[in-house]
Amino acid sequence: MHVDWYIVLAGAIVGLAVGLTGMGGGALMTPVLVLLFGVTPLAAISSDLVASVVMKPVGSLVHLRRRTAHLRIAAWLCAGSVPAAFAGAVVLRTAASGPTVQDALRSALGAALLLAVSAMGVRAWMEHRHGPPPHPGHEREVRVKPAPTLVVGAVGGLIVGMTSVGSGSLMIVALMLLYPSLSGRRLVGTDLVQSVPLVAAAALGQALFGHVHPGVTLSLVIGAVPAVYAGSRLSARSTTRWLRPAIAVVLLGSGLKLVHAGNLVTVAILAGAGAVAVAAGLARSRPRVPKGASLAATDTRGGPG
């Protein structure tokens, strides 16, 4: 079993970003393996999912200890996501492993990344328009919606099982839409807790069907696990105002390349996305002014002395 120290370094960088931002590692690590290290999409997805089985519990245990996860919502999500994630691995197994299928899977991975970036944009827009979710202790009583929660889990689980993308980016946006009264910490905590059995089911399916590359998986674990822990510790004392938009731009570029977008098109879209990310970061850095305060301030400055 060969350890690739370049993959170890890449895993550490991705793990640090995951610990700092809570964003899904699959959306970052799988395209890195495909685009930078030449790993086939099937092996990249499988190896990343198995490595995530070791990484995911790090964050979920923290939220379980702090009781910032809504366990009933997480249970309904798992009821849909766990069998769907395993089914996603079965779907991959039934397909042939030739170049045509690998290319189709690469395009599917790119489409999942572009969908994840869109979900991140929706999340940022919702927080800007309505303000961040309430803090724990100030949220209203949450009424669990079993049927839609089950559907969200099933759709998200199938996407994760086939692409390794979505357990953090797509499903947390769906939770925000279903449960807008959940606090930010409980959203993240609920998503992390349900993602552990989800990723475990997907990884089990991939391991049983023989797509896992042991050397790649071991390299990812060596680099990512301590970095996730370090990032989680740093996140309490640092801001992710600029890191999240930067990661979104990187994911956008990766998604475009995976779907075979031309260089000029990719550069143009990334330039526009970068400008939007900078503008969004500047807007978020300004303090929110309560309604009515701006009018009062105008009255005090506008009249003659």
Percentage of residues in strands: under 5%
Tally of discrete structural domains: 1
Q: Treating each run of at least 4 consecutive H or I residues as one helix, how many helices?
A: 12
Sum up the overall morphology in one term.
globular
| Sheet with most strands | none
Distance between the termini: 79 Å
Unreliable stretches, pLDDT < 50, 5 or more residues?
293-305
Report the average pLDDT across residues: 78
Which value, in Å, is the CA radius of gyration? 20 Å
How many β strands by DSSP? 0
Task: Describe the protein.
- The protein has 305 residues and is mostly helical.
- The protein is built from 12 helices and no strands.
- It has helices at 5-21, 25-35, 41-66, 71-94, 99-130, 146-163, 169-178, 184-208, 214-235, 243-258, 263-285, 293-302.
- Helix 1 (5-21) runs antiparallel to helix 2 and helix 4 packs parallel to helix 6 (146-163).
Name some characteristics of this structure.
single chain, 305 residues, mainly alpha, 12 helices, 77% helix, disordered C terminus
SSE order and pairing:
Layout: H1 5-21, H2 25-35, H3 41-66, H4 71-94, H5 99-130, H6 146-163, H7 169-178, H8 184-208, H9 214-235, H10 243-258, H11 263-285, H12 293-302
Helix pairs in contact: 1-2, 1-9, 2-3, 2-10, 3-8, 3-9, 4-6, 4-8, 5-7, 5-10, 6-7, 6-8, 10-11
In short:
The protein is mainly alpha-helical and 305 residues long.
